[in-house]
Amino acid sequence: MTLLDAPKFNAAKERRQRNGLIAAGVAIVLIAVIGVSGFLLGHGWFFDDLVIEHHVKTFLEAVQQNDLDKAYAIWLNDPDWKNHPQNPNYDFKFFKQDWWPESQDGPLKTFHVDISKRAGSGCIVAVHLNDKPKPVFLWYEFATKRMSFSPLELEY
Q1: Residue from 132, 123, 114 nearest 57 by CA
Q2: What does each of the 156 residues of the chain score in pLDDT, given as a tens digit?
Q3: Which secondary structure element, helix H or strand E, spans residue 126, and what is its range?
């Protein structure tokens, strides 16, 4: 093929290629911005910890409404916990002492989930309860979807 036999210029094809490259570039930038902003805002890469934070919020809403049976079911990830009430690590009696309205901290009036951070086999969620200056750190285990008090604290 010589230069004289070159195909005709196809403007529509060139426009589609140019627009495809622009769309791909915009998509890459948008994905990067979403991923990094989720991390910088404290909700995990690509905001993947929002599901865990919602689980914690659901638990705290049940505590706030004094529905401790539902809250304990969320805590254990076991809606049928009454059929086997003895939990060797944290039974309902101790749970009530920590979360009952007459507990040392009083009833739960307000809460705010601040930040979450994945660590090992779970996620640490920092929650401010009743506008206290020091947050409570809750642990969410990925495998069992159970909650507990976190042995680790976050600095933020």
Answers
A1: 114
A2: 676 777 888 889 999 999 999 999 999 999 999 999 988 888 888 888 889 999 999 999 999 998 999 999 999 998 888 887 676 678 888 888 888 877 666 788 899 999 999 998 999 999 999 888 899 999 999 999 999 999 889 887
A3: strand 122-129
**Number of domains making up the chain:** 2
Range of the domain at 22: 3-40
The span from the CA of 65 to the CA of 106, in Å, is 13
Beta-bridged to residue 112, according to DSSP, are 128
**Does 20 lie in the same domain as 60?**
no
Short-list 142, 115, 129, 151, CA closest to 39: 115
Please state whether the predicted TM-score (pTM) of the whole model is above 0.85.
Answer: no
Three-state SS at 135: coil
